[in-house]
Design a protein that fits this description.
By secondary structure, the protein is of the alpha/beta class. The protein is 50% helix and 13% strand. The strands form three sheets. A seven-stranded mixed β-sheet has the order 3-7-6-5-1-2-4, covered by helices on one side. It has a seven-stranded parallel β-sheet with strand order 10-9-8-11-12-13-14, with helices on both faces. Helix 6 (293-304) packs parallel to helix 12 (463-476), helix 7 crosses helix 22 (719-730) and helix 10 (428-436) packs parallel to helix 12. The chain starts with 10 loop residues before the first strand and ends with a helix.
Length: 748
């Protein structure tokens, strides 16, 4: 592959993903770029984009298109083609990854082929979504299905050609390296031989003239030449070593190609019966209706009343060096709730990554795509719901939809285990575990039914069936992982054996969430408009229900008035965001607040690095139970290494202990020993304000608390430790992490 180095000339047009707005950036920002590079786009001023003809005749040397997906769409590719056809430079920029790529004609052609293959895959997915005939009669293979089966073959064949192309490319590059290194070494050798002959002639001419300056100079040159010759020999040996190293990897590539051919045959073999059994698309298909409720009830009751938990069997605790054999499956089927970020989103992605690290093979089966899983190199299979309507009946009815589609997959894969994040109304994981004799781990994050009563003021119409779905999962489960002690008690009260319930709080990925370097932190704060003297108070999360938004909105004006240095960074959105917006408008805080709204997961992690203090003002219990949550933000805050002000509410208080309270500041600045945060009374605005001010005015105390919190996160609350607790418990051993931390806190 040839690489074209970008040379800075003038400016570049920057086009938004919809191609309807444009800005400008100096071309020098991309100086020397050849392929894909890390790049942070500065804040630009955008205006409506003119017509295509005006864009192409602009004096700019090229363009940058900002992408909102991993793959450029048809319009973006067409625009890039227009610029390339006029000899202009072209770049694609992915803001979620802070990545920019040079697009030349070769790369452009490759992207068009990928877009074509993606289109075929989309058509295949639509084919696999066809529902069976309502009569249940066997359907003949329709002509469109035969055509689409050929499309499957085309996609697999295309993948094989891509692998062959990569094979040829690498082998050609290796041969080029060998030729180049050999030719270069030969050139050096020829030159040194010529110089050596000249020096020998000079030495012969000067024979007998000992200690003559010319004789000494010639002898010194001859000695230096010997050093050059030795260096050339080392260079040749180094080249041969590199060449040998690369050559040793070629059999691995060859083996991968052979395995991919075998895998392709398996794909076609498994896909064929699915295609044949799929009925034509019924365009009248919509959400499930009340009439289908009796069959759902019978389905869930059959599992709950005849549960057959499947035990795990392993001798050594699985880890990254001793992986569990077979394929693990992570299952999450809340089709009605597509996410791009947030605590639940990060929880799924980082937990799946930790599970994948301990399992020989791994895949996530999800109802909505998680882009972060792709970034983490975790394989995912997206199986959407039949209809996205979020009604109780449709949620319950979707059990049939997913059992029909995933049954074929589970039968073919026979996973080593299923790990299911329990979602409202789903009995699919429990059904698959019993049907195919698969060990089954259920993760239960608390009662959606209780949350509905607490924050919507009413319950569910089909509460009995939703509870039955939970019971089916609990009874079939090999292990139930819950996020808090209160959730564990709730499950046990429903007649579930306490021995298979593990309290395993949420956690954090220390690579994604970590303090920034001083230089990077300063650059980020400058970009956001914060000065060195500002004390930035940050909040990330959902602006709703139990997150204490009422406390936050009431506290912001008091904090701004009490300390001119305080600024606020707000990340996220939700149905209570209006409380905060009203407080900002009513008290004129617009210049004191940076509100970025909902952002991608990694962007949120990056923005937290700008904060001096992070707050978790959770303020209330459920209407029918104590606060049972394990806020993901809490562990992400701990990993950032800055001061934290949090509510002393159930597990939050346990995890953040030991802690300082406002009484500790009564006699002056307290000495920090092993404390992790400042704890305040839940729902008490005055106490919360006092806690934030205490850290804003005592940065040394804030920094010391932050260091302790980071240390606790590293020791007890990583996703790797969270997954290790699963395997320890399943192996009959004592869990670590939270259990150890809690025991130490109790003793203290």
């Amino acid at each position: 592959m040839t690489h074209q180095t970008h040379t800075a000339t003038g400016s570049l047009i920057v086009l938004t993903a919809r191609l309807d707005r444009m800005g400008r950036i100096e071309a020098s920002a991309f100086e020397g770029f050849t392929e894909r590079h890390f790049f942070r786009m500065p804040l630009l001023s955008y205006s409506p984009a003119p017509a295509l003809s005006a864009l192409l005749s602009d004096a700019a040397s090229g363009a940058v298109i900002v992408l909102d997906h991993g793959l450029a769409n048809r319009e973006q590719l067409a625009m890039a083609g227009e610029f390339l056809a006029r000899g202009k430079t072209m770049f694609f920029f992915w803001p979620d990854e802070n990545a920019v790529e040079v697009i030349n004609s070769e790369k452009f052609g490759s992207m068009k082929r990928h877009r074509y293959a993606y289109g075929i895959a989309v058509r295949l997915k639509a084919l696999l979504e066809r529902r069976r005939a309502r009569t249940g009669a066997a359907a003949s293979i329709p002509m469109p299905a035969v055509a689409d089966a050929g499309a499957v073959h085309s996609v697999v064949e295309h993948m094989g050609k891509e692998a062959a192309s990569l094979d040829a490319h690498l082998k050609g590059g290796l041969a080029e390296l060998q030729r180049g290194m050999g030719a270069t070494a030969d050139q050096f050798a020829a030159h040194t031989d010529a110089v050596a002959n000249q020096l020998k002639a000079a030495q012969a001419a000067l024979a007998g003239l000992d200690n003559h300056p010319a004789t000494n100079a010639v002898n010194a040159s001859a000695a230096a030449l010997e050093g050059v010759t030795a260096t050339v020999g080392s260079l040749r040996a180094f080249g041969e070593s590199i060449s040998g190293y690369l050559s040793s990897g070629m059999p691995v590539l060859e083996r991968l190609r052979t395995q991919s051919d075998s895998a392709a045959a398996d794909v076609l073999r498994i896909a064929a019966p699915v295609v044949q059994a799929t009925a034509p698309v019924d365009h009248s298909t919509g959400p499930y209706l009340e009439g289908e409720i009796p069959s759902v009830q019978a389905f869930l009751r059959s599992i709950a009343e005849d549960a057959r938990p499947v035990p795990f069997s392993f001798k050594k605790t699985p880890d990254d060096r001793n992986k569990l054999p077979g394929t693990g499956v992570y299952l999450r089927l809340d089709f009605w709730a597509p996410l791009i970020s947030g605590g639940s989103y990060g929880h799924t992605c980082y937990q799946a990554q930790a599970l994948a690290e301990t399992t020989q093979d791994f895949a996530c089966v999800v109802a909505n795509r998680f882009d972060l899983l792709d970034d983490l190199n975790v394989r995912q299979v997206v199986v959407p719901g039949r209809d996205m309507t979020q009604t109780e009946v449709n949620i319950l009815g979707m059990n049939r939809h997913y059992c029909e589609r995933l049954g074929v997959m589970f039968d073919a894969m026979r996973p080593a285990y299923i790990f299911e994040r329990a979602v409202l109304g789903s009995g699919v994981g429990a059904w698959a575990s019993r049907r195919f004799n698969i060990p089954y781990i259920v993760e239960y994050n608390g009662s959606e039914i209780s949350m509905k009563r607490s924050f919507a003021g009413e319950g569910y119409a089909h509460e009995d069936l939703l509870l039955l779905a939970e019971d089916a999962a609990f009874r079939q489960a090999t292990l139930i992982s819950v996020v808090s002690d209160h959730v564990a008690s709730d499950v046990a009260r429903r007649g579930i054996d306490e021995r298979k319930i593990l309290v395993n709080p949420n956690a954090v990925d220390l690579n994604a969430y970590s303090p920034a370097s001083a230089e990077a932190r300063k650059a980020l704060r400058t970009e956001l408009g914060f000065a060195d003297g500002h004390r930035v108070v940050g909040f990330i999360g959902t602006f709703g229900g139990w997150h204490g938004i009422d406390v936050l909105s009431a506290a912001m004006p008091d904090l701004a008035k009490a300390d001119p240095s305080i600024r606020f960074l707000l990340i996220g959105d939700g149905n209570l965001k209006g409380l905060v917006n009203d407080a900002i408008a009513r008290h004129g805080l617009q210049d004191r607040v940076v509100d970025v709204g909902r952002v991608a997961q990694m962007k949120g992690a990056e923005l937290l690095k700008a904060c001096d203090i992070l707050v978790s003002p959770h303020s209330r219990n459920m209407v029918d139970s104590p606060f049972f949550g394990s806020p993901t933000k809490l562990f992400e805050y701990m990993a950032m290494g800055v001061g934290i002000v949090a509510s002393d509410l159930e597990q939050i208080g346990h995890v953040m202990s030991p802690a300082l309270r406002m009484s500790d500041f009564a006699a002056g600045v307290p000495k920090v020993t092993n404390q992790r945060a400042v704890m305040c009374k839940p729902g008490d605005v005055e106490d919360f304000v006092a806690g934030v001010l205490a850290l804003a005015r005592n940065p040394d105390v804030s920094d010391a608390l932050g260091r302790n919190a980071r240390e606790a996160a590293e020791k007890y609350y990583t996703w790797r430790q969270h997954v290790r607790n699963l395997w320890l418990t399943l192996g009959g051993k004592t869990p670590e992490g939270y259990a150890v931390d809690r025991a130490i806190g109790t003793e203290g």
